[in-house]
Amino acid sequence: MFLLSLLIFVPVVYGLMLLFVPKSQVKFTALLFSLSTFILSTRLFREFDPSRADLQLVEKFSWVKAFGINYFVGIDGISFWLVLLTTFLMPITILGSWKAVEKNTRAFHANLMFLQSALIGTFLAFDAILFYVFFEASLIPMYFLIGLWGGPRKIYASVKFFIYTMFGSVFMLLAIITMMIMTQTLDGGGGMSASLLDFYKLDIPFIGGTLINSQTLLFFAFCLAFAIKCPMFPVHTWLPDAHVEAPTAGSVLLAGVMLKMGTYGFLRFVLPMFPEATAYWSWLLMLLAVIGIIYGALVAMVQPDIKKLVAYSSVSHMGYVILGLFTLNEFGVTGGLYQMLNHGVSTGALFLLVGMVYERTHNREISKYGGLAKAAPWFTICFMIITLSSIAVPMTNGFIGEFLILLGAFQANSYLAGAAVLGVVLGATYMLWMVKRVFFGSTGELVEKYNSKLEMNWREGAVIAPLIILVFWMGLLPNHFLNWSKASLEHLLQNKNNYTLSYVTESTPSINGKKMIALKDKAVK
Amino acid sequence: MPNLESLLDIGLNHYLIVSAALFCIGMAGVLVRRNVLVILMCIELMLNAVNLSFVAFSHYSENINGQVMVFFVMTIAAAEAGVGLALAVTIFKKFKEVNIRFFEQLKG
Amino acid sequence: MSVKLLFSLLFIFPLLGFLFNGVRFKSKNYKLAGGLATAAVFASFMVAVTLVVKLIGMEEGSRQITAHLFSWIHIGDFVANASFLLDPISAVMILIITGVGTLIHLFSIGYMSHDERPSKYFAYLNLFLFNMMLLVLGDNLLILFVGWEGVGLCSYLLIGFWFSDSEKAAAGMKAFITNRIGDAAFLIGLFIIFFQFGSIEFLTINSLLPTTAEVGWFGPMTLACLFLFIGATGKSAQIPLYVWLPDAMAGPTPVSALIHAATMVTAGVYLIVRLSGLYLLAPNVMMLIAIIGGLTAFFAATIAITQNDIKKILAYSTVSQLGYMFLAVGVGAFVPALFHLMTHAFFKALMFLGSGSVIHAMHEEQDIRKMGGLKKYMPITHFTFLLGWLAIIGVPPLAGFFSKDEILWYTYASPQGSKILWILGVVTAAMTAFYMTRLMALTFWGKSRVAKDVHPHESPVSMLIPLVVLGVLSVIGGWIGIPHVISAVLPGHIPNVLEHWLEPVVKNINLGEISVAAEWGGMLLSITAVAFSATLAYLFYGSSKSEMPNKISTALGPIYKLISGKYFIDELYFGKIINPLIDMSKGLWLYIDVNFIDKITYLAADFAAGCGRGVRDLQNGNIQRYAMYMSIGLIIVLSIILLGS
């Protein structure tokens, strides 16, 4: 029933429709649209079979035949939650920026819809060129979001963001083309193919210790693109600027989903396609990740701007994800995947919360706050909970991810894990110090000025409530989430060196996901 | 005594030389003149130079295609002259100016 | 009732209390909030008693109740379930926690009656007990860690309870971050254990322990023990991470009693006792623990002598007593450590609550120089405090005497112990007697130095009941662990109930040949030292005004300054670690992020822009130029073709 294509293209249609909706109803319509996309995406729970490690719900149509480029989408356990995260965050984002955006609301919401489509497309594409198209297409709406609805230095930030990420992607495109040419030798000299499944089959020559050999070069080309996207130290400097200038919705989606495109790329491209290079160079990426964790935390500590602090904390958190992925063991990779979701939830929520205060005071300087807890107790409670999730206190989602990553890192390299553990301490330091300066202590000038207006309202409560529920749900019952990805991750790790992915062509028009599974179970018995 | 016959016996090369000369005159005009109208006329000149060689080639290679092509070129030339003159006239009406250098200002 | 249900109930009561009070945190109805919270904890206490009775009913040697609630994390070989283990160790702990917890909740109702946010307070308190129970009942290290961090969090929230005061909020933050340093080390210890044993469940670890002890410092078990111990120094306020505990007194006093005296801070001791089998295999770490414990006990006691804030004195006293417990586990005296943990919970909770009663009566005055003669106004508080005082300085037959004496004896006689540590212990005991007597004398005895506008009064009944109960426990609590050497001469042969109870799970280190005479001698010596220093303190600070303390402090000059300045450890940490770190971070940000990485990207951008500028003239919009380029190009191409052919 083309569920995946629907998920990708329905938002585009919605976005176009929004351009013609009367201005007064845009927000409401957009909210309804995004909710309907989310509801549509929950059908994945029925259609997707978590017990299988192969590619599911595949749709494949020829696009550019001469070069073997297809419209090829599918889903497996790795992309499953990222798609749902995207559709889940979208209505929250729209509701969260209800009051924040007043100019060009139609274009704003249409942009959000286009962005969603590009993001989902990135996670679902299994054709390298299609992936690249979505990967790049997501830049455009985000560029406009920052450039049109951003803060005072929006042009600087949006251009920096665009060029930084574009720079990395060029290398990725080169690498993709190289690999497409390589696929000609597959299957006894067939044509070119851009399918990831064919890329997985490639056996690319690798020589350890030198840089100039095809696997190493391809590895670094992809790594550069994804590292910039993540972002990883030392190519992270676009992130703080982009976040600070972006409107709340932009920040939420940027931190919540877009950064995951980088880590997803590591997991989808780098690990399975270049196993030898990954194994050989994993120390470098782990080292950079650990530096990123500590560096991000230290720099976050001294930021005078709340949003910049959260942005640098993203650098630190994404460092954990990369560290986890390159441990190349079950704990680390699972933890890394989980941490992607955690970061989407908790950092997304942090940006939303910061946005709520900013809407009222139009100022984010930490030193001008103080005593907010007294003026806005409910807001403080929400912020506290999200803070705890962000600093990985047990029973929140952050803990599961960080713990697994550190466990995996300890197995891979105990010294690096020892250094990464410092991030746990520093993470608590910068967050709690900020909380102390903003929420506790004597009343600051801004809190005095806006005193009674600072408490959150029902709409904002509704925005943050699902995220808080998720924080505890993911922290207490991680298996509810991990079970959907387990088979795919296990498949990836067990076949690290000769990873392949296959899919079953469903000739019969899909009846009902559950029935199909039931039928299969019967057949097995 | 040179054979006058041979001089009067006009061959392909003669046509081509005239055509090349016309083309060069036209090109020089396009490159150095400032008046839009003159430039347009020079372009016509170049096109006609090409036409001349087409016809000559067609005649000597006994292939009608060349002459067919001339019709196309003439049509295009007419269209081009129409659009170009229209633009030139409009601009002249508005700014009282036919200098090509002035047209740079239109880029905004 | 099924065990699973009982375990669930144990946790559900405080959790419900937390949720109920947490949702209506703005309510000022302290009676409802406090009543419910107390009832919740008391219900937990009753469930705990039921469970322990069940445990007693089981066969000796196989006393274990386990309950598997749900599967929490299960990735590959790593299994951490939400499952719980009640064995003799956790039975002792759970009774202390819920029992003392109930009393302190009850006390809090009166204490928080004038506060603006009593509901919030009780919510936090219930959450704390929930986490503390997780800590002691978890059957694996990760559940223990969940509780471990959870109590740290509650401690943070409660220390910073009056958050409008920036210093109190800072104290909370300091506590959490200091604890986090320990927690990070704890995690590393946990990893080592997991990769060594393939499991983090206590029962599995114990069954897989090798038989020979490790030598050196870099064996896996030694490292695991070392890192877990670093974790314990954070939670249990030992050198070098003790600095948060004195500051933690910024919280409400009952919190200090519950969290920072009776329960949370003893978690480190519990951890080591829980893993005693492992620790016995790492003698080097044991030695380190004993030294750290002894030094902490000694230094904290010296600081306590010079303090004037009633809560600060008690705080340093707590650090010092915790040092005793670590000294005990370090020399292999696990049962005495747990014993002292228990008696300390009684008498220190009592003293904190007593001080709370005093502070409440004095309208938030905490300086003991402004007290004096309170005996007259607050007879019951005075009397119970007196019991606590006698217990902590180790007057037989009160609780503190037996536990402290056992520890000292093990320090003297254990193969892991040493005479130097023993002397340190005895001197610390004498100093304890000194500062505690000073506290008693300045607060309750002598002439009143109370300010004119303050009218001290006895606290309400709800606050006195816990005092009385804890007072009784401070007296009789020690009788369940009377050492053999004493019980041998007592009529009726009172057995050492505690040791017997714990025997199947925890064994003390083997002392080898013991000399009864030496044990009696040590005991008499420490009693003499205590009596001497207590008398001295009474003479200095008692009814007759003595000039001696001032003279001594001026005579000691710089040393006194050093001690009363708490050895300037805070200043050292700030000056040498924290501030440089912040400066470095600023440097990183400015010089690496802003001025280095960004500059490089600007350079790259400038290069691209420069190239563009270079070829910009090619496109200046002059149509004749374009035509020119075209013709030149045409000519070049044509000439190449013509000349080439």
Q: Beta-strand percentage of chain C?
A: under 5%
Task: Specify Rg of chain C, calculated over alpha carbons.
Answer: 31 Å
- Describe the sheet with the most strands of chain C: 2 strands, antiparallel
Instruction: Give the domain tally of chain C.
Output: 3
End-to-end Cα distance of chain B, whole Å, is 65 Å
Q: How would you describe what is shown here?
A:
The complex is a heterotrimer of chains A (525), B (108) and C (645). In chain A, 72% of the residues lie in helices and 3% in strands. With 525 residues, chain A is mainly alpha-helical. Chain A folds into two domains: 1-273, no CATH class; 291-495, no CATH class. Chain A has a two-stranded antiparallel ribbon with strand order 1-2. In chain A, helix 1 packs antiparallel against helix 5 (105-124) and helix 5 (105-124) runs antiparallel to helix 6. The longest helix of chain A is centred in the middle third of the chain and has 32 residues, at 330-361. Chain B has 108 residues and is mainly alpha-helical. Chain B has a domain at 35-108: Helix Hairpins. Chain B contains four helices and no strands. The longest helix of chain B has 31 residues, at 65-95. Chain B is elongated, with a radius of gyration of 18 Å. Chain C has 645 residues and is mainly alpha-helical. Chain C has a two-stranded antiparallel sheet with strand order 1-2. The longest helix of chain C is centred in the last third of the chain and has 48 residues, at 569-616. Chains A and C meet through helix 8, helix 14, helix 16, helix 18 and helix 19 of A and strand 1, helix 5, helix 6 and helix 25 of C.
